[in-house]
Amino acid sequence: MTARREAFRLGQKVGTYPGGFAAPTQRRAVILLSNPAAGGGAGAQVARQAVHTFAGLGHKAVLVSPPGPDAIKPAVVEALRSLGVTGPSQAILTAVGGDGTVRLAAEVAADLGVPLGIIPAGTGNGVAYSLGLPLDPWEACRVIATGPVVACDLGRIEFAPETGDRPTGFLNVAGAGLDAAITETYERTGLGLRGVPGYAVAALRSLASHAPALLDLTLDGRPLTLSALLVAVGNGPFYGKGIRIVPSAMPADGFLDVCVVLEVGLADLSTLVPLVLLGRHTGHPKVRTFRVREAFISPRPGATKPPLVQADGDLVGRLPARFSVIPGGVRLVSQAGADSGA
User: Fold this and answer.
1) Are the C-beta atoms of 242 and 172 separated by less than 8 Å?
2) Cα separation of 59 and 52, whole Å?
3) How far is CA 287 from the centre of its chain?
4) Which residues contact 271 (CB under 8 A, 6 or more apart)?
5) Which tens digit of pLDDT belongs to each residue from 33-71?
6) Tell me, which fold does domain 155-328 have in CATH?
């Protein structure tokens, strides 16, 4: 472990340590949004350490841990006031947690016009993979302290009024079908396992029990009907742990990329799963891909239980739903020499 990463682990002011970065000429006010439950509790520890790290780099930082999603925006507004920030460009809202925390932070950042920083501290960290951001907390702090601000697209999901589900944003990958079923199994069935082992067990259970759904899709006005095991709508390409489910997706191109896995038998599934893990599944005969600005997905009339919808790993509602993209919808602190389309 390098001196600066050891300093981060101890919560020390890394800017004063050998190998630490010199204080940048432009000071940044950083609001750290923490989810205490992320990464099995690791998120809260990382957030506390990050406060000291930014102080050592010469930046003002404050930590907020709102009790729920509806409390995030007021907490951020209050933090901006406490930091003496007079304009949105003078502060960075930094999500410390998993993809769900990042999704909520992205919505608030977009609403307030504040740049978004990301310190991954979850189980899968798919957003960081998709945006080419460091997984190491120290390196993530370095990017937030010194990196350029670039435009990044923001996905949006709007549900049919009869569902009662609220509109929501997503920064990475949303979907309906198997991926949402895995999320539900992981979250609601009390498997007693967390992290990667829990997701692995949830995936196996869901693969054994999840049935394909007959769906009507309207893609930029083009209708088609498919029996689908999974529909993934990507602003970014990766699920957690670097699984490239929508390989062609780029988060700054103004489009969404859609990957549909059709109804498959056991023989096809045995060949398809390894290809998905390698990101080489798009040429499989049971996979369809599309690039769109808008997708409307609905179960066929008469469906007794419409498929669940997930957004960046959180269950957010049920079909029918409209998926769209807001080009440049959020400003993102990126790595120097990189862009959000990488």
Assistant:
1) no
2) 9
3) 23
4) 284
5) 998 776 667 788 999 999 999 999 899 999 999 999 999
6) Tumour Suppressor Smad4 (2.60.200)
Domain ranges (residues) in the chain? 3-147, 155-328
Type of residue numbered 110: A
Radius of gyration, CA atoms only, the chain = 20
Report the alpha-carbon distance of residue 252 to residue 340 in Å, rounded.
Answer: 6
Which residue has 């002011």 as its token pair? 13
Q: Is the dihedral of CA 288, 322, 160, 127 positive or negative?
A: positive
Q: Distance of alpha carbon 149 from its chain centroid, rounded?
A: 18
Q: Mean pLDDT, to the nearest integer, of 81-110?
A: 93
Peptide bond preceding 167 in cis form (omega within 30 of 0): no
CATH of domain 3-147: 3.40.50.10330
Cα-to-chain-centroid distance, residue 116: 12
Residue closest to 149 by CA, chosen among 338, 331, 341, 340 = 331
Which helix or strand (DSSP H or E) is residue 297 part of? Answer: strand 294-299
* Beta strands 116-120; 222-234: pairing state: unpaired
| pTM for this prediction | 0.89
Measure the CA–CA gap between 195 and 198, rounded to whole angstroms.
Answer: 5
